[in-house]
Amino acid sequence: MHKKKIIFATKNNGKLKEIQAVLSDTFEVISMNDAGLNIDVDENGTTFEENALKKAAEIMRISGEIVLADDSGLEIDYLDKAPGVYSARYMGENTPYSIKNNKILEILKNVPEEKRTARFVCVIAASLPSPYNKTLTARGTIEGIIGYEIKGENGFGYDPIFYLPEKKLTTAQLSLTDKNKISHRGKALHIMKNKLIEIFK
Ligand code: IMP
């Protein structure tokens, strides 16, 4: 069967690989680069949904293709869910994560385990052109706690401080395959995949 083409609105090749791993048995997923698009969409919304929908809609309007976009971040309950949608920009976009992670460990230094709860959130939005004229969102989360030290070499961003008590590991200590099976992005992707299959069947 002919696979429907989907543009995934990211310039991050790591994310593209994760997405292709889940979707490519059913869809042809290409990056903005592959589609010849070099556009930056401002992530100026206050929710993950708002940012993901805005990105997907804008790239769909320009390309006329089916577009998926995601927005994700870390919510720390003790910090009233910060950095949240500002996760990439927390302490400055170009500040190394070793510094950001150490700062968070410092802020939470004397906070007991039961108050260190946190989650990664990922929202994937789809914008479908005519004849569908639809937008969809799918949200995935993974619950954990902020650890007491930096641990692990895999993953990216806040992974070295995101500790999974039941596994006794941070997400930076998981292989990419194992992380994808339980991650916020993996969960949101599976939900979105099922919604798309339902629409296109
Ligand atoms: P986005 O690329 O605009 O969605 O930014 C997401 C930001 O949230 C990243 O730059 C990281 O700081 C953080 N983040 C999202 N997902 C993860 C993850 O799986 N591990 C570690 N950090 C993450």
How do you describe this structure in short?
With 201 residues, the protein is α+β, with helices and mostly antiparallel strands. Helices cover 31% and strands 26% of the residues. The longest helix is centred in the last third of the chain and has 17 residues.
What does this structure look like?
The chain is of the alpha+beta class and 201 residues long. The chain contains five helices and eight strands; from the N terminus they run E-H-E-H-E-E-H-E-E-E-E-H-H. Strands 1, 2, 3, 4, 5, 6, 7 and 8 form an eight-stranded mixed sheet that branches. Helix 1 (13-23) packs across helix 5 and helix 4 crosses helix 5. The longest helix has 17 residues, at 184-200. The mean pLDDT is 95. The site of inosinic acid has 15 residues, from strand 3. Inosinic acid is lined by residues 43, 70-74, 87-88, 120, 155-159, 183.
Pick out its properties.
alpha+beta; 26% strand; 201 residues; eight-stranded mixed β-sheet; elongated; 31% helix; binds inosinic acid; 5 helices
Query: What is the molecular shape?
Result: elongated
Instruction: Work out the helicity level.
Output: 25-40%
What is the averaged pLDDT score? 95
Quote the distance from N terminus to C terminus. Answer: 12 Å
User: Which structural class best describes the helix and strand composition?
Assistant: alpha+beta
Most strands sheet: 8 strands, mixed
Helix segment tally: 5
Q: Which hetero ligands occur in this complex? A: inosinic acid
% residues in beta strands: 25-35%
The string of secondary-structure elements, in order, is EHEHEEHEEEEHH
* Rg (C-alpha, Å): 17 Å
